[in-house]
Every structure is written in structure tokens, then in C-alpha cells.
Model the fold of this input.
Amino acid sequence: MIKVYAMNVSGIDISDSRLTERMSPRRMEKINRIRVEKTKKQSIGAELLLNYALKRECQIEPPVIWETDENGKLFVPDCAFNVNLSHSDDYAVCAVSDTAVGVDIQKIKPADKALAKRFFTSDEYEYVLNARNAEDAFFRIWVRKESFIKAVGKGLAIPLSSFSVLGETAEYEGKVYKFKEYSVRDRSYKLCVCFML
Done:
């Protein structure tokens, strides 16, 4: 079971106390450290989606109390489901699964081919160089890589150039992970979920 929740956070009023009352203490600590208004909106939006998703899937009333493991991966002690969050520009997303899951969303911008050469496999780099739309190809690879390392749960301890995401699946330590791409209303974003089979 995979469910993905997304929202446009641009309309969030960061001064609305009804929203901040629904934030966990850990989220409020994070929000209070953030100086940029758009980043505050992203963080609030991610927590609102987490609250909404887990009220539906686990019947947990907000605010959801969550923790992070030794690698920084978020988990909810009172829920059997795995969750993951991401945000970029005006969007926040939350993925919920009965297996290990990672999600990433990115606003499409000009492709950084030097970054692709440094962090992508040689096949992935060629894929970007030969694509009709280099930006689309670059961010398709990027969200797949980010969602994979988040699903595995080891963060950047896994070098991005050490695995390929061009296929439908990728493997790590004998486990197989599948990619599923989604669309949001605004087509200038790439969104991918990666989950363990």
C-alpha cells in the first residue's frame, strides 16, 4: 500500500495560530529556527500533510508525535506505517506505506550538468546529455535518487553515483526498491516515490 499526499503551500498564513496549534513540539522548534517565510510554509505544509495522512491511515489525532532514527529518518512510534516527507518551492508531499518508503519532489530548473557528472552514474549522465529536455531528464534522475536513499534510510552514506535509477527498480543490500512517479497540478515539478518490494 502506497499513498501520496501533496499540497501547494503558497497560501499558508504562517501567523495563523490554528495551524501552529496542530504542529508537534519538534516541528515548532524547527519552524522557529527558520528565517525564510517560504521555508516556514514548506515545513508547516509537510507537517499538516503528515497529520492528515496519519489521521486517515492510523486514526492518530494531530499533532502527530514523530521521532527520527540515527540516520535522521522520520518515523511515528504510534503507527505501523512508514512515512516520508519532502518539499520544494511551493509544494510539500507526504508518502505513507506499509513498507520502507522515500519521497522526493523538486521544482524543475535549469539542469546542472556539472552536478550530473559528479553525482550520476555514467549511464545517467549520458541519459541527461542525450535527452530532448535536459531539465526534465536531470530532475527525473534526481528525484529517483533522493527517494531511493530516503527509502533505504541511510541518507548520503550511500554515494549518489554508486547506484543507477534508470530502471524500474534498484537494489541495496539484497533488498529491491521500486520507483513510482507522480504528477502534481503544476507540471513544473518532478515527484517520485521509492518503496521496498
Observations:
- The chain is about 35% helix and 25% strand.
